[in-house]
């Protein structure tokens, strides 16, 4: 059972969530976007949101700033979250500026706000669930897209709801978080995306 919950935590790791959101957007958007542009955006985001954080993690582990990929203590989270905020800013300025794909721009603005909130809490010695921030943020983005493009994605939303429950269960089972940390993480993921909907919906 432990292995199953560890698998869930890895498959739905926060570094993968932005890429899930972007891929879903390109798959469901009725707008015509040339294939080379889609490929360039996805490759760029894969490098910046997946490969670069992994490399930075190994660097931080080598110099003794982190112990595990799950960042188990608030102190371990401060530097990785700060670096994540910088990477997200780079994405907003260079990969997804507001003049190109407005939905994805505000999706990443929401990610930035969630990361900053989580960083502030880590500085204050509180460990909000980054897993829940990631999966709940993507869930809210999917909901907004379904309304924005008037598409029926009930199946996808139901699956995402199940995934959110599975991720929360895995974090509780592995004793990585308590209920309060999971609930706050969920709100930190949902609320920025919900508030920013007003700017592009």
Explained architecture:
The protein is mainly α. It has eight helices and no strands. Helix 5 runs antiparallel to helix 8. The longest helix is centred in the N-terminal third of the chain and has 28 residues, at 35-62. The mean pLDDT is 89.
Secondary structure layout:
Layout (H helix, E strand, L loop, with lengths): L1 H10 L5 H12 L6 H28 L11 H22 L6 H22 L6 H19 L5 H20 L5 H18 L5
Helix pairs in contact: 1-7, 2-3, 2-5, 2-6, 3-4, 4-5, 5-6, 5-8, 6-7, 6-8
Structural class: mainly alpha
Proportion of beta-strand residues:
under 5%
Cα(first) to Cα(last) distance is: 41 Å
Envelope shape: globular
Main sheet summary: none
Low-confidence stretches: none
Features:
single chain, 201 residues, mainly alpha
Give a nutshell description of this structure.
The chain is mainly α. It has 8 helices and no strands. Helix content is 75%, strand content 0%.
